[in-house]
Amino acid sequence: MFLNIDLHIHSCFSMASSPRMLPEAILSGCRLKGISVIGTGDILHPVWREMWEKTIIPEDMIAVPTTEVEGTDRVHHLILLPDYGAAHDLADDLTPFSKNIGKNGRPQVKLTGEDIASRVHDLNGMIGPAHAFTPWTSLYASHDSVASCYGDEPIDLLELGLSADSGYGSRIADLAGVPFLTNSDAHSPEPAKLGREFTRIETSSDRPDVTAVLDAIKAGTIVMNAGFFPEEGKYNRTACTRCFQPYSLSEAINHGWKCPVDKGKIKKGVRERAEELSSGPQAQRPPYLHIIPLAEIIQRTLKTCSPNTKKCSELYLKCLVAFGDEISVLTETPLDDLCEFHHELGGAVAAFREGRITLHPGGGGRYGTFELG
Questions:
Q1: Residue 192: is its pLDDT beyond 90?
Q2: CATH of 2-231, one of 1.10.3470.10, 3.40.50.720, 3.20.20.140, 3.40.50.1820
């Protein structure tokens, strides 16, 4: 059985998250998107954990207890747990080392990656770096190797992040055999955010549960990663964090990492950081499907200022009523059927599938953009 999974989201208790990030809204969004396994996010927060424990999960969906924590060196770790009891125990274990574990959905913990990983593994959980290449709060922002952060504790996964795809990590010897996950890191339940990146796994279970999902990741039975074109990410290219002027790596070094235009800080891009860490030939990885959220394709089709306008939302919902979930519309629905439903939208989806896309890379904290040909 194939399952589309998104294991990194946030709750209404995380900074900069929508107050609408509630279990029912998240599950509803997953249904629209085509995600059948969702991470709860922020499961160490006591109120959020209680909310999920009281939520009735549909029989055809799975909620995996997950969280993101910030350890020393400002490295963010993605944690997957087998049940809510383990989440409660981990919260208790980490509380002496955190001032905000009961207040912030993404708590700061004054422990090294090795210490956190050891505690997670003692509870039969899984851990790995979140958005590993991002130039802020990530493994490779602060370290040059996995062992430098996690010591003798192994990592069970690595999250690529929105500015990278599998190719960015497949030439890093340190990551050989580590499963790559693609997740949305969603802070709101809008269709353009939730499930914007996902991982497809295969499980032999006819009635999969949390254990089956974790076992599939451990076994490396990932059949596909799906997500942004890396150029769409906010930190793909080296750029000024104030005016977003892009620079080559050599230019940034020559400028002393200070933008000559406005004296803002130049931040190294994910593309350049991954290249620094790479050596040897590209290792074989599951196929990576570059996708664009359907809501953003509809926005370009209707020429609106936002994918969240009433006009876009109405067409989005009509499309799903006609053809099912968003992932199916983007990848499987016959183009003739889409064109008959809405000629311009069908043409836009055709351009997306055929790769007639012009990308304008992001960097310095600003998302990249795209045009459909």
A1: no
A2: 3.20.20.140
